[in-house]
Amino acid sequence: MDPFYPFQMLADWITYTALGLSPTSKLGLSVDFFLYDVPKVLTLLAVVIFFVAIIRSFFPPEKTRKLLSHTHLYGGNVAAALLGIVTPFCSCSAVPLFIGFVESGVPLGVTFSFLVASPMINEVAIILLGGMFGWKIAMLYIVSGLVIAITSGIIIGKLGLESWVEEYVYQIRMGDAGELPDQTWRERLNYAVSYVGEIVGKVWPYVVVGIGLGAVMHGYIPDDFLAKYAGAGNPLAVPLAVLVGVPLYSNAAGVVPLIGVLTQKGVAIGTSLSFMMAVVGLSLPEAIILKKVLKPKLIAVYFGINAVGIMIIGYMFNAILG
Question: Which domain holds residue 72?
Answer without folding.
Answer: 8-171+187-321
